Amino acid sequence: MGLKVSLWLTILIFSSPIHAKETIQWMYSDFPPAFIVKGENTGKGYVDLTQKLLINALPEYRHIKIKANYARSNLELSQKDNICHAALLKTAEREKFTEFSIAAYIVFGNKLIINQHDNAILKPYFMKNKTIDLASLMASGDFKLGIAKGAKYGTPIDQILKSHFNKVSIFERSAEDHFSGLSKMLSLKNREINATLGFEVEIRYALTQLGANDINLKTYSIDGSAQYELGYIGCSKTKIGKTIIQKINKILIKNRANKISRFYEKWLSNSESIEHKKWLKIFLY
Question: From which residue to which does the signal peptide run (predicted)?
Fold first, then answer.
């Protein structure tokens, strides 16, 4: 009888909430080819695979994935203690509520993407180095830029957007998809926007999803913006979040210059891949 009681007490203790696994809620968005949520490549984006690698390496936690746009992800990170996101740019604003990992990725920077029929609008804003003076373009009053709500595009682009926020030159889209909806808007004959912002890999992926008649998008580098951006894993700036990030950093040190970089390089052209490998040796080895 005593043995049975002891056995039941042991079962009750180890099945109680005290011994239940802590939960990580992973936010993600429709952001191909980082996160791919539909089609034959579902779950095979470069951040999808990175997130899967992290989840498999953290079996002591219960993992839940939640689809949301970046605006909601930022809100969740600021309000809850167990939120993580596997694809964030680091900004001073986000650092107020996000505990960031060491750099997990190095990716090509954002560019201006325009429908070629609107190319004439850009002519007065070309710099000598063939980049676009985005600040002057936004101030012209003849141009409307579409952006994803809550997204960050890197410096100095974010500062330019901030100075023009709530003005007619910006259209902010709040859907769950990060880029595909904006690229479709650019392909319309009666389009509401002249351009958007995005990575080259996003554009190439979007063009594979659009019809043959919609391949008239062109990209331009933005004056002052970096050729590359460092990407990070971010978790809630709480005791739980900081513990998770400490563990994630150890995983990244082992994997970011090999497995994780290969997840990204799959989506690059041969010339981009060569350039990317140079950056890896400088920043992530």
Answer: 1-20
